[in-house]
Amino acid sequence: MTAEIINGKALADELRNEMKVEVEELKKQGIYPHLTVVLVGDNPASKSYVNGKEKACRETGISSDLIELPTSITEEELLALIERLNQDSAVHGILVQLPLPTHIREQQIIETIHPNKDVDGFHPISIGRMMAGMNTFLPCTPFGIVTMLQSKHIPMEGKHAVIIGRSNIVGKPVGQLLLNENATVTYCHSRTKDLQQFTKQADILIVAVGKPNAIHANDIKEGATVIDVGINRLEDGSLTGDVDFESAKEKAAFITPVPRGVGPMTITMLLKNTIKAAEGLEKL
Ligand SMILES: NC(=O)C1=CN([C@@H]2O[C@H](COP(=O)(O)OP(=O)(O)OC[C@H]3O[C@@H](n4cnc5c(N)ncnc54)[C@H](OP(=O)(O)O)[C@@H]3O)[C@@H](O)[C@H]2O)C=CC1
Ligand SMILES: Nc1nc(=O)c2c([nH]1)NC[C@@H]1CN(c3ccc(C(=O)N[C@@H](CCC(=O)O)C(=O)O)cc3)C=[N+]21
Fold it and tell me: Which residues neighbour 192 within 8 Å (Cβ) at sequence distance 6 or greater?
């Protein structure tokens, strides 16, 4: 079997065009959706992601501003900035780019962002609402993955979804969203014994490890759907995922590429959450 490639970039463009219309409608009502992005330090990868987010906002008619801070900023100063953004009624969404320097406690920062402005969906209140299946800001990468599966009418109900990775931003929440969609979910991680025993059972395999070639064709079941979340920059500057795409695409039924797979969908869901934040919480 040769897999159908799920073009995340094309789907992202399509959804962004729809959102553009929604944003225009909001503006007619006097609501100007606005995202504030906070970037601490000068990590080149973070800068590049943040640029992508700003460009996507512009294209959708969402206004955004970037607050760049030196690595030397203290946790107190960053918390004070977030408190100020929480109070600012012109700011609908707040995104603090991760990772943060080690002297700043990430969890403190995440918990200070007002849940009504938590467009990343990382606040414990957002996570709790997601677990309870309530309306909330869903974390962007998991939300993007489920949206991709739905766009291709790939059934989740009753299917075995195997997740490799258990981070708070990808692995754990994507498993929860798939569970909400009635999949049977297995989590694997670095302490999993005999990983292949699990991956070979997966109808839907989500790979969020952060290592090139973590998964090959012989790890997957014929006809599976393979979602590659990994973003790895190689020495030659090119980007690659966690899956050996060339071999896996001969065995899977559906597969996402890197680049132009999950990444653009992550940004698109951020735009969606920002619009939702601007529309106001009464809808939450
Ligand atoms: N496309 C997108 O929009 C996004 C892409 N990413 C990318 O996705 C990847 C994962 O990100 P993130 O979740 O933040 O990463 P983390 O490093 O936080 O998590 C990686 C996970 O993989 C597990 N793992 C590591 N090695 C193995 C192994 N050999 N076998 C099985 N499991 C293993 C770890 O296990 P343990 O918990 O035991 O350590 C951990 O749970 C990265 O490449 C990142 O750049 C991230 C966010 C968005
Ligand atoms: N608070 C916070 N929220 C995040 O959502 C967040 C974060 N911190 N820290 C880092 C990760 C990573 N992430 C990506 C977003 C888009 C692409 C993306 O658009 N990738 C393009 C390629 C981009 C390129 O060429 O560099 C693609 O895969 O086609 C990738 C990765 C969001 N993250």
Answer: 164, 198
